[in-house]
Design brief:
homodimer; 2 domains; 403 residues; alpha+beta
């Protein structure tokens, strides 16, 4: 793998033909904080996207889902500080207006411009500020890292990655950026993720491999079990490398998929680690489930059990809470069969505690990365989820957010 | 209602023919703390019960469910400090042994003795201590309040209530006690509740009205969304009042049901108020749902949304989080229809914020009791749920529990 993929800088502007620009237009009350950003390709891209399944979907999500039907995109405009959610028809009009301003500035077709918003729910966007902000944005081919910063909300650091590899012997790049640190849970939450590539890719296959990558990465993390209204993950493939468009039959398809998944897994783990108030990341491996869907339920359950997340914060190998969370997750569960491991230490066998090394178990909980393994002994379903602990910091960040 | 029901003291020993006894047998490490209790009737009772739906059910729950098939009970023995859960065949043997010790002491049939355990999961009960404890318990007809105390775990105060009313012109009493303050959520959690009455009641009807009362009370509260392995709610009716056994056709049936529900509602609210670390109780009224099941989903969702619970702790009327929780609850939800009220203040109309009085909304969040109303405008389904806020105190109580 070290030979196949080289990690490079500048995330979404690493692939050929992509430019980004950012500005501070005053949506966020702290002056000077970046809150508006544009990503644009020199040529129209094949685009794929997956979105929140929330019943309360933000206006920009509705716009993206509508325009995705065309399968093409050339730019996306993103603001932070305001989610443009629960804003009714005016909110939807504003989302379209944002893309119209952006299309005019860039001189491209309006229906090739997508948009995202993240921040507080229930307030109308300040359209004059956004219009002025879009005008003042300057675009650059070497500033993807600033784009990663501009879309942050409560994130403590930008989350980005780019890889270089070969398709048909030609150099291809794939770059990704993600924001999100709270309200994150399976099926995505206030998460925005944009991935760019200069490879040519067939739309239907791009949509399929993106969906699969997201299901195994972004959809397997949780900070607090709350689901967001604005989740968006899109891939823009502009084809400037001029390869034969990738599809399932292309001999280099596995290479592209591997690169895509390497990026989504890395960025998903980064989000879990950067969970609001988090001091520890947990990786939960479930095996022996009746099937994959059951393994997913069991693994995810630990990522949004406040009781277990508190034990994790305290470094307490309280396996009863692990069993209680998994057992109530809706997966098939035989209370006389399951094994639990904290790090390398086996704690239960056939559902009851064995005489394990207490010091070793506490040591496995002490670091900033904790690995829990559950074997349900019911089949061959496997899944891995990532999450974090629940701390005073989470509460402090979330008790006084709108003021 | 003031004329129909008189509130009286001593909860479960208020009805005729019930005795309780408690002791400190050393299950809990703090010497002198009550951790074992017996409730017994002078004569066999008609019994009804509802239990956790968790896939990991504690041994005493399995025992109760088995013995409930007989429809009769005369006593229950309860320990705190150890949940006897995830303890395998030995745990089940120990549960039966506990009832055997109790039957011997009381001189009654073993299959009329039920048992409950609450506390840490995954450790075997110290049976010598329990055997000795059962022997040393002294029973009294006037000590129901001590029973309420002995079954507490992290509760800050005992939860109990007794009512006196008339059936066929005869004085009847109904007394209840409940413990629980964490790991509580819809479908019950580490909640133990015992209700006694000296009325005669038909078993099938008692089971039905208990189930309905629990669904609308205990099953509508949550502290943290975690489900427990040991939930138990039982009613013991010893018939000493010698009325015609109550059933659906009995003219005084509504009176009994009203008394039963008054007790379960009061004790459910007490549990929500006593949630671990809680500083506020929230009451969530949902109306206009497509049906009752949808109303229940929407109302409950606010009781286990950490983001909303943090806003509640901070007194922040962040209605976006209310909409986000309800919208992802799985209920039918029209994002252009819902109204949200914080206290008396309407915040949204048809899904978007109106120009509401901010001071009034903040004032409605400032007290220790907050009322949220959501009208989904989709039908006539209604439900009410109760919960609490999420605070540093919750985390402190749950980060170092097993040490």
């Amino acid at each position: 793998m070290a030979d196949l993929f080289h990690e490079i800088d500048q995330c979404v502007t690493a692939p050929k033909g992509f430019r980004t620009g950012t500005t501070s237009c005053g949506i966020k009350s702290d002056a000077g904080i970046k809150d508006l950003a544009i990503l644009v390709s020199d040529v129209p891209c094949t685009v794929a996207g997956v979105f929140t399944t929330h019943n309360l979907r933000a206006a920009p999500v509705l716009l993206c889902q509508e325009r995705l039907k065309g399968g093409k995109a050339q730019a996306i405009v993103v603001n932070s500080g305001n989610a443009n959610c629960a804003t009714g028809q005016q909110g939807l009009d504003n989302a379209y207006q944002m893309t119209s301003f952006t299309a005019s500035k860039l001189g491209i077709a309006e229906d090739l411009v997508f948009c995202s918003s993240t921040g507080i729910i229930g307030r109308q966007l300040p359209m004059e500020k956004i219009e002025a902000g879009i005008q003042q944005i300057e675009l650059s081919t070497t500033d993807g890292n600033a784009f990663a910063e501009a879309i942050m909300t409560t994130d403590t650091h930008p989350k980005r990655m780019a890889l270089e590899f070969e398709i048909e012997g030609k150099t291809v790049r794939l770059g990704g950026v993600t924001k999100g640190s709270g309200m994150i849970r399976p099926n995505m939450a206030t998460m925005l993720s944009y991935i760019t590539t200069d490879a040519a890719v067939e739309q239907a296959w791009l949509q399929q491999v993106l969906k699969e990558a997201v299901d195994d990465s972004y959809n397997m993390i949780s900070v607090d079990g709350d689901m967001s209204t604005n989740d968006t993950c899109m891939v823009f493939a502009n084809g400037l490398v001029d390869n034969t468009p990738l599809n399932a039959q292309h001999p280099d398809a596995p290479t592209f998929v591997q690169a895509l998944r390497q990026i989504t897994f890395k960025l998903a783990r980064e989000m879990a680690r950067d969970g609001e108030g988090a001091t520890k990341i947990q990786t939960i491996n479930v095996r022996g489930a009746r099937n994959k869907a059951d393994a997913v339920k069991a693994a995810r359950s630990l990522t949004y059990s406040p009781l277990w997340q508190c034990a994790l914060a305290g470094g307490d190998p309280n396996w009863g809470r692990i069993a209680a969370a998994a057992g109530s997750s809706g997966c098939e569960f035989d209370q006389n069969a399951f094994d639990i491991f904290v790090g390398e230490t086996q704690i239960t066998r056939q559902g009851i505690a064995i005489d394990y090394d207490q010091d070793q178990a506490h040591a496995a909980m002490a670091g900033d990365e904790v690995i829990i393994t559950i074997d349900l002994h019911l089949g061959d379903g496997e899944a891995t989820a990532w999450g974090c602990d629940l701390t005073h910091g989470y509460i402090d960040e979330n008790s006084l957010y709108t003021r």
